[in-house]
Amino acid sequence: MTDYKRLTKDGLWSNNIVFAQLLALCPVMAVTGTATNGLGMGLATLFVLIASNLIVSSIRHFVSQAVRIPVYIVIIAALVTLTDMLINAYAYELYKVLGLFIALIVVNCAILGRAEAFASKNTLWDTLIDSLMMGIGLTLALVVIGAFREILGSGTLFANADLLLGSRFGFLEVTLIPDYKGFLVLLLPPGGFIAVGFLLVLKRWIDLRLSKDRTLPLESAGCSVESHG
Amino acid sequence: MTLADIRDRLEYQSLLLGAVVLVTCAVLAFAYQLTREPIRQALENDLLENLSQVLPPTLHDNNLLDSQHRIQAPWGEITWYQATLEGKVTAVVLPLTAIGYAGEIKMLMAIREDGRIAGVRVLIHKETPGLGDNIEISRSPWITGFNGKSLSDPRPSGWAVKKDGGAFDQFTGATITPRAVVGSIKGALEFFEAHKAAFLQPAPTTGDHADD
After folding, report:
1. Chain A residues within 8 A of B12 when measuring between CB atoms
2. How many domains, in total, are found in chain A?
């Protein structure tokens, strides 16, 4: 039996695609100007991740070792194109926001990575759990980075959420800091690196605090994070 | 012979790759057929929505999509639309492109037959968030300041941002973007003036021919 608790913990926290594997950084930097964009990109990636990994898992006995990479890439690319066409046709408002970035999903090495490392060796059911958790972990990471940049960069949270989720979710849009002049650099691409850097430090720090190894006095925790690089 | 034996043979691998490509292509072709009409519809609605932003509905009673024409403008070949009210040409709508701070700024503009601007909107741009993006109607009403303006109001020397001695506001920290927008709108008005005859010529009833 597979340990679902471990799969869940891996996907959401300890082996998180962004904060632990440091994969998918290209789409991460590109779309996380707002929490809403992060959420939209995360959900689109989640869909492609689950669908492609399920297909890879179901044909895993038929795929030869030598040609597996092109086979996976063709499947992923086809699913991304499919997602792109469907969003364009049935959610045009969302397409106007995310359109340019949907194609970026295909270069998200995390998807190929999961296909290669997990789906090609495991049953359909385990693959479903793994890609679901990995995808949710990625989505959460994108939302957190997006929220970080949006709050500090423009003083709002979940701006334009109604475009993504429909007008029912308009209440999510909040202006946290009225008359905020904005902190431009966080909205520009360098801000993505700065935000991911700070959030990585935060995650490492929490990991350190939670770790069973209590030999280090807590005050020195900050220093030892730095020395870990 | 087991599956594991066959899997390592070259013929099997080639056939497998071919089969995967064939199946994915078939799925994509099917999806393309399925989504082609909704995508066309979505693009058309989007265009109509944009057109209605720059052109007041009281100015025309024709379907603008049925009166498209093409012309070579200084900023590229464009598709423009002729608005008519009870058979008389009242305005034209044309797209324009300015080169801003971070690339192209795509706009849509309606000019009344007397040369006054009915409306301008920025459709696509890559200007700096928080500075140059005040050209968007959702960020600032700045772009509506062009309504009613023409080549004689303000005078030609006034067709510039205030920093350059003109009549139009720039934004704090961003001069290049509004300068580009003002310049390109002026260019469009001059282009309209120079080709007024072609723009205002009432299209014969062949106007509803399908564009290819």
Report:
1. 64
2. 1
